[in-house]
Amino acid sequence: RNLCRLAFGLLVAVPTCAVVVVVIWCRSPWSAAHYRHELAEQLALDVRLDAIGFPRPGVTRYLGLSLVDPETARTLAELTAVEVRAERQKTWIECREAEVLDGSRLDLVVEWATRWLRGRAGSESAAEIHLAKLSLHLDGGDDLLLVDVRGRFAGTQAKQPSENPREPQAVLEFSLAGQEDATPARISFDRHVGKRSAGGHGATTAIKLETGPTALPARLVELCCPGWRTWGEESTFAGNLQWQRGAAGITGEVDGRIAGIDLGKLVSTRSQHRLTGTAEVYLDEAQFRDGRLVSATGSIVAGPGLVGRSLLAAAARDLHFAENNPAAPLIDLVDYEKLALSFKISERGVSVHGKCPGSPGAVFLGRQQHRLLAEPPKGFYPLLGIVRLSALGEAVPADPAAQALLGVLPVPVADEGGFGTVPQAEREKPQRR
Question: Which pTM was predicted?
Fold first, then answer.
């Protein structure tokens, strides 16, 4: 009988009590506090956690998880329920619904994830993440809903220069709500080891965005490429974008289509001229190095709208376009039906060709196919002419906007169009003997 009691105690009572203790611990505030403290240390953020659970073997469920900025006490993100399944070298994370309450950049989200992975399983840990819905609350009250968000993380160590650049360390794929059937957009993140400079860091993050056929709103592109909203709040982007921020500025390249550009807002904030209408920019290729444009090839299409005579006159004066009525008052506004041109910008200067349909060489067409502005003679013209378009006078304005534009245009080569005053097309004319 005593033996039976002992067996009952060892095989039934003790395990049952142990389970009861574990259940009580898991549901107690001490358990949530323990995991909350652990997450806070790994993420370097303040963490709020309502409860912790273990629904299945090897699975941890976080309920009511909030991430808080420790400096501002502002809630950055809220996740209703997160399930984590971890193995030795791989972690799976599943979340039905998440909200990012602050319009933080996506590279910051990746930084949180890599911190968390490093704390759980070391720098070589890999992970897969799935968010059924992700709500982004951006500045100005804008909201974006992303669905079927999937992330893959292949370790957190910065890459050495010899490692395969085609295998990104982190990938996020997502669709916009209402466009679930389209090919998902994809953002790749890589941390690369570089040469350490005085006071600088030895690793930088490279970001690549591939939208596929989906046109992403500018406020979403802004999250991975700060400054993109310059094109306008209602603009969209479809194409490929990759950039890497270094000590001297951004290095990267862009190709694709930027649509929905409000020319009235874009031009009026950077120029004294008037130009209205909605434009589309098609970039075949644009390359940047150390914060400066190296080259760009593409085209612009816009209209209908209004264009100021002062802008037509400045284009004729500074970039040698052919204007149809140079004697017209500069304060006049003219209706235009179509603006179409192709362009090339490089260290040699700028080259422009008119592409208005039905009127070869025309850049601006008015009513009844009337030419308002035609392309200049073939060749490259000084980049300084682009800066002068922002002024009504001959001289380049000595203001921050002009200086900023000069700082991002390509550095001209010697004896080319560049920033000089003699266009290459004129220099190439045959000399009389």
Answer: 0.78
Tens of each residue's pLDDT in the chain, 433 residues = 545 544 444 454 444 444 444 444 455 554 567 778 877 877 778 888 888 888 888 888 888 888 887 887 888 788 888 898 877 777 888 988 887 766 555 555 656 665 665 555 444 567 888 989 988 877 666 778 889 999 887 755 544 444 455 566 788 899 998 888 888 999 887 765 555 444 444 567 788 999 998 899 988 888 777 778 888 888 999 999 998 877 778 889 999 999 999 999 888 777 788 899 999 999 999 999 988 999 999 999 999 999 998 889 888 988 899 987 776 666 788 999 999 999 999 999 999 999 999 999 999 999 888 899 999 998 898 888 888 776 544 455 555 666 777 788 888 876 544 454 444 444 444 333 3
Residue 290 exposed, middle or buried by CB count within 10 Å (0-12, 13-18, 19+)? exposed
Cα–Cα dist 2/416, whole Å: 103
- Identify whether the C-beta of residue 177 lies closer than 8 Å to the C-beta of residue 189: no
Sort strands 216-217 and 203-210 into parallel, antiparallel or unpaired: unpaired
DSSP assignment of 298-339: EEEEE-SEEEEHHHHHHHHHHH-PEES-TTS-TT-EEEESEE
Neighbour count for residue 369 (Cβ, 10 Å):
13
The residue written with tokens 């403290």 in the block is 37
Residues 6+ apart with CB under 8 A from 315: 321, 323, 363, 373, 389
Tokens 């592109």 found at:
221
Dihedral angle at the C-alpha atoms of 423, 428, 432, 433, nearest 10 degrees? 130
| β-strands 322-323, 362-365 pairing | unpaired
Largest separation between any pair of C-alpha atoms in the chain: 128
